[in-house]
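Researcher: Please predict.
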Amino acid sequence: MKDDNSGVDKTREKEELAKVYKRRVTPVRLTLITAMLIFLCEALVMLILHFIPKVTGMLEAMIDSTLLTSTMLPALYFLFYRPMMRHLFEIENFERELVKSHESMENAQIAADFGVWEWDVKSGGLFLSKGALRLAGRTEEILKKGFEGYISCVHPLDAEFVRKSFMELASRGKTLEIEYRLLLPDKTERVVRHKAEVAAESEGSAEKVTGAIQDISERAKAESEMNRLAMAVNQAAETIVITDTAGAIQYVNPAFERITGYTKNEALGRNPRILKSGKHEDKFYRDLWSAITAGKVWKGRIINKKKNGELYEDEAVISPLFDHSGRIVNFVAVKRDISREVELEKRIRRSQKMEAIGSLAGGIAHDFNNILSSIIGYTEMAMEDVKPGSPAREDLLEVLKAGKRARELVNQILIFSRKGEREKKPLSLYIAVKEALKLFKAYVAPPIKIAENIDSASGVIMADPTQLNQVIMNLLTNASHAMKTGGGTLSVGVRRTELSEDFNTPGGDYIKPGSYILITVADTGHGIKKDDLDRIFEPFFTTKAVGEGTGLGLAIVHGIVTGMDGAIIVESEFGKGSEFKVFLPRVEEKAETEETIIGGERARGGQERLLVVDDEESVAKFLKRALTMIGYTVEAVTSPAEALELLKRGGDEFDLIITDHAMPEMNGEMMLERIREMGVETPAIILTGVSANVSVERAAALKVSEVVNKPVLTRELAEVVRKTLDVRKGAGAA
């Protein structure tokens, strides 16, 4: 405090000296000194005249005045006037220097954002230097209001604190140092540091308080920014690590502790290699270190290991920190845990891969179904021309069986690609599982034991019976295959379960809250390796030996389950077994009894005229011949343009149009639109190599009565044709 007021003390000392000089040279003192000198000089003259022969009159007076003047003037000059003038000049010079020094001090205070403050506690009077007035943004008018006038300059939120602090100083304190805000007339704020001490006191109470005020707004702003930065670092979700140039950790933020599991004390002084996962080669770390030590910023992804051994992936930016000379003094790493994002990326890539394969499968299925249509159709017609029991008929029968198996395989591919839609109906899930188990037990190997825990009151689901059976049989077959060498227990369960919140399965399937029926199929076999679990539902991926599996089974199961708005989860530990959990939405409907359509008598034909349109010539020929054989008159063309031309010439000549859906010039729907625009109302049947997604409204507008999947058997086609024609006749009769 005394250091801050040393300049003030010197100034006051000079002022006191000037007052002393002025007190010494007063008019009264000047008169007394002059009178004394006159008296002394007169006495001296009288003494001199005493020794001179007696003179009288005018001569005596002249001698007296001459002697008095000659003694008086030198005495006054040397003894009084000369010293007095010297002192007066010194005082004048001193006062000039004093004013100059005072002005310099005031200017210095203003330049240094500094001011002097003095408070007379008893009177309430206040002195503020020009620097202090400038800091407060006020004029000397504020001094008239005393201490409370200064308090009015303080920010309202700080005013009571400042008043209380100075009152406590005046009552029992010695020194004070506080920081507060001044509110300027333009409503801007200025942060000041105020140091004060008791300068005079009486009976334990202060009479005068002096102090200094300093503007610290810039420092306070810098401190505020530093505090905000510190808060941001401490509260950031990203981990922040600062190391020295040797790599020793000097700072970690709370996010580092939360994510890695290492406390701050455990990390400080150690190398970041404590997080090393072993998933990167040494070259990876050498390249990283070479980059940052060369003054470059390194960006990339790092797989790290937590304290508990769990792996996680970081997206990191590691930068060198330079001092004013450009020398690297630290390294700072900002890392964000992207493990969840990486997992989502994997799921998206897998979904895209599945979608791409599905699209490819759909395209293949379309072309293959056209080929199968010709194979199956011509085989059926050839069998009509061969006598029963002949070797040729037996051969053709095998061809027909192979064609039907191929048709089922294509259907599986279409199911996987989600382009094969089937009619769903209410089914009792426990009955479906029971029937599948009955069939499965007939060929399962004896070393495998089957444990059932099936709840008959589990409920009803909406599903296609064939697809549902395919899901159950596939899971049972896979479980038995996992135990074929050492045997074990195959556990099958069916129960109702309620999900209160939505979640994503490890495979990326979304399950929303609701009521589900859970199917569990567990085995005690060899299990699945962790690296294979992510690919278990990929098409054509299999862990079985060559020749033992196609890799389509679980992919098809996944496609069927998700197509029913369900989800499938697999849990496995290598060497201990696996468990598959299938969640299927439960519905409040009555289950229907599954009906199996068995081929009967050959469907009857008719005399109507039919128009067949298919861009595959072999398919068009087969359809024409098959339908002609059962009595219809058939015109077959291989392009929509030919069909439109025929209908222009005689649109009413045909009773039914049978068209392929996917054709190069225009598809079946587009062709039917053109036909309806021509005013032709002939009903139509669409044949498709993949499921044509024709809505009910769209079908009604285009007069489409049926959409039939290729390859179609002759009997099935005949039934659909006859049914459509009969409906038209019935409508016409009505």
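Model: The two ends are 115 Å apart (CA to CA).
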